[in-house]
Structures are given as structure tokens and as C-alpha cells.
Amino acid sequence: MSGLLRAIRGIAVLFVVVALTYAIFYLGPADPALAMCGKPCSPENLEAAREFMGFSDPWWQQMLTFMGGIFTGRSFGSAGVAIECAAPCLGYSFQMHQSVTSLIIERFPVSVSVALGAIVLQTIVGVGLGALAARKQGTVLDRAITGGAVFAASAPSYVVGLLLLLVFAFKLNLMPSGDYVPLTQDPVRWATHLVLPWITLAILNGAVYARLVRSSMIEQLGLDYARTSRAAGLGERRIDGYALRNLALPVMTLTALDVGALLGGTVITERVFGLPGMGLLLIGATGTVDLPIIVGTTLFSAALIVIANLVADLLGPLLDRRLAAPRTALRTPRQKVTNP
Amino acid sequence: MIRKRTSRLLIAPAILAASALAFTACSADEGGNGSTGNEPAPVEGGTLTIYTTAEDMSFDPATSQSLAITSLGLNARRLTAWKVSPDAATEVIPDLATDTGTPSDDGKTWTFTLKDGLTFEDGTPITSEAVKFGLERSFATELSGGLSYHKAVLEGAEDYHGPFDGQHLDSIETPDDKTIVFHLNSAYGDFPWVASTPAFAPVPLESGDPASYAQAPVASGPYAVESYKAGNEIVMKKNPEWDPETDEARTGGPDEIVFKLAQDASVVAQSLIADREDSKNSFLATFVPPAQLVQAQNDPKVGERLVTSGPGALEYLALNTESEQLQDPKVREAIEYAVDKTAYLTAKGGEISGDYASTLITPGIAGREEYSLFGDDPAGDVEKAKELLAEANATDLDLRLVVRDDQVAAAEAIQQGLGKADIDVTIQTLDSAAWSAEIPAGDGTGYDLTLSSWQPDIPSASANIQPLFASDQIGGGNYNLARYSNPDVDAAIDAALAITDPDEANAAWVEIDKQIMADAPVVPLIYSRNSFLHGSGIADFEIGEFPSYPNYLTVSLAE
Hints:
- The structure holds two protein chains of two kinds.
- By secondary structure, chain A is mainly α.
- Chain A has helices at 3-27, 43-53, 59-72, 100-135, 140-154, 157-171, 187-221, 224-231, 236-263, 267-272, 278-287, 291-319, 321-324, 327-330, and strands at residues 74-76, 83-85, 92-93, 98-99.
- By secondary structure, chain B is an alpha+beta fold.
- In chain B, 25% of the residues lie in helices and 19% in strands.
- Chain B has helices at residues 7-11, 18-21, 71-75, 128-137, 149-153, 191-194, 265-274, 290-298, 329-338, 341-347, 382-391, 408-420, 432-438, 461-469, 487-497, 502-519; strands spanning 42-43, 47-51, 80-85, 88-94, 102-103, 109-113, 172-176, 179-183, 223-229, 233-238, 256-260, 282-284, 306-308, 314-319, 354-356, 398-404, 424-430, 449-454, 522-528, 531-533, 538-539, 556-558.
- In chain B, strand 16, helix 12 and strand 17 (424-430) form a beta-alpha-beta unit.
- In chain B, helix 9 (329-338) packs antiparallel against helix 11, helix 14 packs antiparallel against helix 15 (487-497) and helix 15 runs antiparallel to helix 16.
- Chain B is globular.
- At the A-B interface, helix 2, helix 6 and helix 11 of A face helix 1, helix 5, helix 7 and helix 13 of B.
């Protein structure tokens, strides 16, 4: 598929995401204007709040206004206190008194910090353990790794995070119990504050990698090329190298998706460790029915995943030359049936 | 859910989440009041950290629903303030004004005079004009969302939409820099209390973009906002222009106060229980979660750092008086007898999470009278209930109890109690936002019963009763959840609101309390207690009789 087609497909996906988010919240019972009405809340105030926030229009019209705002910016209200939201405007949070775009700009570095460390850690640990388990297939070590992986993959991140905090922060007093320090402010404290969140995510996601790598590796080691190599007298390490090389593509695809998802925020991990990232922004907004934040961050996160997918699609051919070959070349030549 | 430190609260501030209330208990002092014992003496200076689960905090007086003794009170003074104490009813005291207001003979005009030498953080004088501007701003649609009690009483307020298009509210007069006069629709005895709500804070006329004032307010109180990261962290520094000599309500102990927002209550509570170095000089503004509460009670090292309030907010079962099955007062009376309050309290965490309730006016409110119209046994009287149901010819009741999803256990306790009197109850749970939209903001057709909780915004009996039982508070996001409409009660409420003599007013409210309960629109269940944790470096951490929250304005660091 050409790059253009991929891009169009990605944009279509984003459009559907926005439409769905709007529809879900507008068909639902919650009224985001209630938060702006005051207490006690008079019917006139409620109507005025609804109108001011742009919630009195039909949902599809609000959606179009929202999409227009991304390119042209918008303003809310009138008279002396109009609120301007410059392009790219992903909406304005009346509860936070800030545009969603600027909130995302504030929160995104936190999620990037969490994501990068977690990705590196979970890939190394997951691939390493998976390959080890495949190599030692059937042994106690293999059972321990696969068993541990099932356990880790199914553990709730809240429990894992809280357990790590209890042990390393509260009992042993080795680690800070949360909070975020910007990288630019103090790189060492940045890292120490993020170690536990990284480990939490690596435990949960690494388990998925380990299981994927283990099963694929076993499959690879049983394939003809591995058997031939072994017969030809190649060392097991070389064969492992070939097998791992063939695993690069599925691992990379998984990683790309994880990068997209992690950048979009890790709700529970951010909550447990008090990290003000995208996940915390989204979950807070869900609780307070801060619709502009919900729609804006959902769209942003969806865009990250679409981009990550696109990157994975584009990187694929670099890792596996077969994907780079033109389609026609891959077609099996028509067999001529010849009689002897 | 803590009132008013949280934007969550902006939605349904008086509705306290059951999860947060559950299992509140009192270990440090079984006496119940949140007094500090033999703690170290307070010192000047240092950094106080306040952890909260709140996502955001508005420092714009126009959009704030903050109680007079919490976050906004550190930054913004109002005309009047609260004097809270663990062993006395909360009193209204002067703040910016020299007294708590002087009413005219007919109670319709209230005059306040500002103290001398008051200045904002930038050194400019605080004038009556600034107080007027602060109030006018609250009428702008763009800045709505705050406590709005003044909007119902100021003359001409219904047609006023804020000062930003050059219009002014004529019912607020400022004859000179020190005097401010309010003209009301009708006599209003609680005006001194209303003058302690956020909108009565001064805002300089040249205060920049109104939309961003919430993040960069101009301080009149002891702390100025230094940095504001929405949903993350707010740093406040001591305001050098604030003069403690003029302020009876605030001590201004710490040099710096840091709010940590959107925290996980369990993690912070753990940290406080362990009394870690980084949380010694801090407290958790959210109720201690159930698991950590049990842990803190059993940990001797925690001791007096766990502070439990006295009985406060009223938790009640609202009976939808518009519902066909509940229109007969006899049926509602039967429910009063059938409800098992002991089962409810057990579901809430046991005896120490609250006291049994039988009145609408809550403990800590001046003039309250204890009485019980429907028997003295909190477990109820099933036989009496059945008798009443037979008399009313209502033996096949099937009621829908609609509650928030964190109240299932409490709802089951109600269900079991009513079940003994052969009343069938179907429980339906909604998430908190959906509940707000269906119950306070709905049309009343979706429920027969619901559970709620109410803590008044001001320590006056009127604030216990008017918002829950006046007929103009039905629907539209308001809290007359019983959808109770009684013209006699409405008239009595209006009459009582007009009484300017406090003792006379208190007596009138007690009568209304009984008058409403005779119609049985709600079943008072418990007056809940809230528990809070602080670090060992904190002094003067007090919870008064009202409200059931720590007084932020007087907390200091310890030696």
C-alpha cells in the first residue's frame, strides 16, 4: 500500500475516533455544563453555561466545530471575557481554565519519559527471558519463566505498582514514592523517580514479549533452515542469532504499538506514582466529565497509535527484505505441467 | 470525596462519595473531635505540603466552591471569615470588614466597613470597589461555577451578566473606599455567613485576563500563588503585604505551601503512615482510604497523626415524593420505621464512622435540637412499619433504589432493612457523573429512592434545610432529591431566612426541621465522621465542629 493510502486510512481512523468519542458522551447521561453552573444552580445559569461552552448545539455540529478548531482555532463566549483557543485547538477545559493543547504540551514530556524507559526495559527483559526460555524448553527455568510471565501479564498494574512502592519506597526506603522531576531540571532525580514506574510497566508488558519471543523462537528453531544449519555443524549461538533476527519483525511491530500506547499515557501507573502525564489527565477528566479534555486527549492518543502503526509499516521492509520486494516478484511462477 | 478542594467537587460538592466516607473512624481521640493533643509547638516558616486527589483547584473566587477554611482561604480574604474550634459551634467573625455586617431595620440592607491598611500582594490598597468588582465578576457566564448564594438575594441580580460589558450591579453601593452596602430582595438573616463565601473576595479592577485569573490570582490573604501547574502542583509563597494584625482567621505559619494534585490517596496515606522524610511536613486533604485507616488505627506509631472529625455531614435516604408509590405520607412514614440504620452504619465501616441521625440540622450547627419523630431504635421497628403499610393499603411496594456505584454495600443494607417489612427494593447503580445527571439534574421519573449526603456550605441551619427541601431546589442539578414540595414549608423557609436575630432564626429552623420530618421526605441515616492523616512535622492540625475538614488557615510546621 502506498504511503498516501496509509495516511488517508490513518486520518479516517482518527475521524471515526472523534465521532465515536463525541457520540458516546453525548448519548450518555452526563452533562458537562453542570460543573459550570454554580451552586445553587438556576435553570437560566445552566442554559447559559451550556451555550457558552458550546454544548447546546447538536453533537455532530459540535464535532465539526471541534475539528475546525484544530485548523483555525476557536473562541468561546463573547463580550469582555471571550476565551481564545489558538490553532491547533483541541478544545478548552473550563474546569482547568486552560486549552487542551497546552495541557497536552505540559503533560506529554512526562508520558514520554515513562514510555521510553519502559520500552527499553521491557524489550530487553522480555526478549532475553523469552529467548532463554525457548532455548531451555521444558526445563524448570522455562516453566518458571512462562509461569512468571502468565502471572505478570495478568497482574493488575495497580497492585504491581503499589507492591513495588511498599517494598522499595516504604519498607526499604530506597526509592522516592512518586512525583515527577523534569529531565532538564535534574537528570539523576528524573531517573530515580521513574525507576519504579519503568519496572512496573516492564513487568506487565515484558511478560507479553517473553511469551511471544519464546513461542516464535521455538517455532524458528524447528524450521528447516535451523535444522540444516545444525546439520551443517553451525554452533547453536549462530543459529540463535538467525532465529532472533527473524523475530525482529514481530517484536518491532509490538514495540511500535506499545510506544504509541505508552505515549498516550498509562493511567494506573501514573496515578499510583503521582506522575502528571497524559493518562492522569484523561482519567481525571473522565471523573469530572471534562468533555473537551476527554475528546482532545483521546484524539491525540489515537493519533500517536496511528503514527506508530505507520512507522511500523515503514520500518518493516528494512528488517525483512521480503516485504520490500515488489509484489510481482513474490508471485510464484506458474508451474508448467510437462509430461516426461 | 473532599468538599471543595477538587474540581470533582465542582460537580456535586456536597455529595460525599461513599467510598471516601466508608470506614471513617476515630482512633486518636475517641472523644470524636479533631483536637490535637500534646503535639509539638508550631513554628514560623518552612514548606507545608498538602496532598489531594483533586484534579484541579480554582483560585478564582468567582468559580470557587471552596469552604472558608480551605485552599482559597489561604489566598483570598472575604468580608467575613469563620472561627472554628473542636469544642464550640463555628462562629462568623470579621475578615476584611471591621464587623460581620450591620443590617438595616428591615434586614434588606447590609453595610460593611473595611479595615484600615489592607493591601493586595502588589501593595495596592484593597478597596470596597475591589470587593464589588469581585462580586460582579461572579455573574459573568464565563466565570460561573462557584458558590452562588448571593445571586439569589442581591436585588436586580437576575438580569445582571457581569462587569465585562461595562454594566454594573446597582444593588452593591460603594459610597467611599471603605464602605460597601448591599441591597437585598428581601430580609436575609444569614447574610454575614454568605459574605464569607468566595465571591466576596476582592479582585483588583486591573487584574488582567479574567479567564486565567484562576491560575494567577492577586492575593489578599497570607499566600500568593507562585506557580500553577493545572492538575499537578500549585506553589504558594508567603505574601509579605499580608498583615497578621488585621486577620483573626489565619496564622500564616509556613513560608511556603505546596498543593500536590491528582494524588493516589492510598499511596499518600501509606507514605504518611510510614512518616517518610518527604511527607513529614504534609497532610492528606482527602479522607484516609478504608484499608489505610485500619492500618493507621492499629499502628501505634501513627497515634495522634490520625485525626477524626466529630459527627458532621448528614447521610440520608431520599424518598422521591413524586413517585406514585411514595406519594402517601403513611407509606413514607412506614419506610422511616423500616430502615435499619445499624445495618447502614455497619456497611459504612461500623460504629466509629458516624453517629445515628434523626434530625435534618446537623451537629455543630448553632441552635440544633436533638429529637426523633419515628422511634428511638436505630434498628427500626418492622412491626410498626407493617402496620402503617397495611393502613395505607400498600402491601406490594416495589421500589427502585438508584445509587452511585461506590455505594452498593450501603444500598444493600437499606434493601435488607426494607425487605423485613416486605418492601421489595431493586438496586440500580450509576457512575458518579451519570448519577448527577439522572438524580439531581433529572426529571425525577428514574428513581423512587436514592442515597445522598449533605454538608452545608455555611454553618447555618438554613444551609441544612433550604437546599434540600425548598421546592425551587428540585431538579436542574439541585439537591432537593426527595422532590419535596410543601407550600407551608416553603413559606416557613422564606420567613426564617428573613430573620436577622440569630437566636430567633435558630428556633424557627428547628421548627421547620420537625415540620419537614413529619412529612417524612427523607430518612436521616448517620452524621458521618471524616478521618485525616498528617506527618509528624505538622502542628495545629485541627478539625472544628463544623465543617468536618481540617482548618488549612491555621496549620503550621512543628519544631
